[in-house]
Amino acid sequence: MPDHPWFVASQFHPEFRSRPTKPQQLFKAFIKVAVENTNQ
Questions:
Q1: Rounded to whole angstroms, how far apart are CA atoms 31 and 40?
Q2: What pLDDT is attached to residue 9?
Q3: Which residue in 18, 36, 40 sits closest to 27, CA to CA?
Q4: What pLDDT, on the 0 to 100 scale, is given for residue 21?
Q5: Are 6 and 33 within 8 A, CB to CB?
Q6: Tens-digit pLDDT profile for residues 17-30
Q7: Domain containing residue 17
């Protein structure tokens, strides 16, 4: 998606294995890009 800064598509469920102290890479990357693109 060329007009979006970040895009993800997934058919697995990483949320079942993700923990607050050990997040899955998918969630870490999503939060990182969301913070970087926040208009503060």
A1: 15
A2: 77
A3: 18
A4: 85
A5: yes
A6: 778 888 888 888 88
A7: 1-40
